[in-house]
Amino acid sequence: MPSHPGFDTSPRVAADAPYPPLEVNGPNHQIVRMLAFDLASDKSEMTSVTQYMYQGWALDRAFAGIARTLERLAQVEMRHMQILGKLIRMLGGDPRYAALRRGRPVYWNGGMVSYGRSPKPMLLDSFRLEEAAIETYRRQIAVVPDEGVSITLKRIVLDEEVHVRLFEQYLRQL
After folding, report:
1. Distance of alpha carbon 93 from its chain centroid, rounded?
2. How far is CA 16 from CA 44, 55, 90, 137, 161, in A?
3. How far apart are CA 102 and CA 64, in angstroms?
4. What is the pLDDT of residue 117?
5. Is residue 94 scored above 70 in pLDDT?
6. Which one, 62, 77, 90, 162, has the greatest CB density within 10 A?
7. DSSP, res 150
8. Phi/psi of residue 46, each to 5°?
9. Angstrom distances, CA of residue 34 to CA of 84, 139, 141, 159
10. Sign of the alpha-carbon torsion through 109, 113, 153, 103
11. Residues whose CB falls within 8 Å of the CB of residue 122, separated by 6 or more in sequence, listed in order
12. Is the pTM of this model over 0.90?
């Protein structure tokens, strides 16, 4: 398949640091609510996975290198989903695809995905999604009383920072 010249077709999509072992101090439903937002809201790992998969399919013909990278990014985000789901269970919660808004569950749905049709707006939407994730994780890290959860979120942020730099690079090249 054709690939746009100048695009790295196999860039690094995750930080080099290992993921820490998953540890929690015990049940904590306040942290569960925070992590549910990270797992399955409009600015969540679930949205990132599905958005990157869609974008990869949409860009495959003209930008095969970017499409492959988006698929690899989706795999990293799926790993984050696995981590968050396990943490939610360890904290005494149920990792449903829903986040609380005003005390009510809002279930994840495909309408939360940005369905742009051209490369630059698509990548800009994904760049913004990554920036929002980093901002959310950093706010959570500042208030989470559980050191094990905080360490894990810090590690996830490292991946999200790699993703931001990658989208910045692609946006400059477009």
Report:
1. 20
2. 22, 25, 26, 19, 12
3. 42
4. 82
5. yes
6. 77
7. H
8. -60, -45
9. 10, 10, 10, 19
10. negative
11. 55, 58, 59, 114, 116
12. yes
Sign of CA dihedral 137, 142, 143, 147: positive
Percent of the chain scoring above 90 in pLDDT: 90
pLDDT band at 52 (very low <50, low <70, confident <90, very high): very high
Strand blocks (E) in 49-165: 98-101, 104-107
Q: Are 126 and 52 in contact (CB under 8 A)?
A: yes
* Residue with tokens 């290198």, as numbered in its chain: 65
46 pLDDT higher than 90: yes
Instruction: Please give the helix or strand (H or E) that residue 109 lies within, else none.
Output: none
* Contacts for 128 with CB less than 8 Å, ≥ 6 apart: none
173, 6 contact by CB (below 8 A)? yes
User: How big is the chain, counted in residues?
Assistant: 174
Q: Are 22 and 83 in contact (CB under 8 A)?
A: yes
pLDDT at 10: 83
Q: How far apart are the first and last CA of the chain?
A: 19
- pLDDT, tens digit, 9 for 90 and up, residues 2-27: 445 445 568 999 999 999 999 999 99
- Cβ atoms of 51 and 43 closer than 8 Å: no
Determine how β-strand 98-101 pairs with β-strand 104-107. Answer: antiparallel
Residue with tokens 């995750």: 14
Percentage, residues of the chain above pLDDT 70: 95
